[in-house]
Amino acid sequence: MVERIVEAARVVLVRDGYDSFTTNRVADEARVSPGSLYQYFPDKSALVTEVMDRWSAEISDRVAASLAGAGPVDVQNPGTVRSIADALLTALEVDAGLLRIVWEELPAVRHRAAQHALELRVRELLAVYLSAAGVTAGDPAARAWVIVMAVENVAVRWVLDQPKISRAALLDEFTALAGGYGPRG
Asked: What is the pTM assigned to this prediction?
């Protein structure tokens, strides 16, 4: 029942937007009574929080899987960098509707903690990845922060705005950006 309610909440949030999101609409979508919904979620806020927490975990898991599956660690290899950037874009595109709600409709206070947790996990993974790749000069945490913030913001805007920049051209730009972080003595 909880899974059905959360999935219905996600559907309603994307379909109707945050301002029109109500527990009654979620109950209707889930085909449960409002009373049943309230047994698990006391209000709209709790439902939105659960949807956001799950979505953040999904994105984080996809990015972690792409880093783990990237093959031999070689930031100098444009193919490795490109495949990781491509995986990030794919992870964001999976649910562009929910991405739009999070980025453009939810009050920042509603999703800030989940966004920061996601960014922190990705930065930690990237810092480990960079260290394993032999990137030893400078502060790995600072590098990870710069890369994650730049790529996250550009990737999100690319998915949402759909500018006249091809996916291939965007991946070329991400590869060039990351190219400056190759191993140094």
From this structure: 0.75
